[in-house]
Write a structure and sequence with these properties.
Order of helices and strands: HEEHEEH
Distance between the termini: 34 Å
Helix content: 40-55%
Low-confidence stretches: none
Radius of gyration: 13 Å
Structural class: alpha+beta
Strand content: 15-25%
Strand order of the largest sheet: 1-2-4-3
Mean pLDDT: 95
Largest sheet: 4 strands, antiparallel
Length: about 90
């Protein structure tokens, strides 16, 4: 197992499956979830690293993987940590 995967498995709330980090975030209402997505979008543009995002009413599911490398990278770890930070600040 790669060092990146080992670190990824330690991230609070995230699961690792097939070179993808996944986490669902719950919000008390739709607009809070959208605010989270807007913060995530701004981060993603700045980092030039973009997630797969599913919006399901008050649940936002985020998936990170480095598509062009076909595996998890430090970019994914950093992005997942940023998501956790955005969520804890809600």
């Amino acid at each position: 197992m790669s060092q990146i995967k080992k670190e990824a498995e330690k991230l609070s709330g995230w699961t690792v499956e097939n070179e993808t980090l996944t986490r669902s975030f719950s919000f008390s209402n739709f607009l809070e979830g959208i605010d989270f997505v807007q913060n995530l979008a701004a981060y993603s543009e700045g980092a030039q690293h973009h997630p797969f995002i599913t919006i399901d009413h008050t649940t936002i599911t985020v998936k990170w993987t480095t598509v062009d490398q076909g595996k998890l990278t430090q970019k994914d770890l950093d992005a997942a940590k940023a998501c956790n930070q955005f969520y804890s600040n809600e």
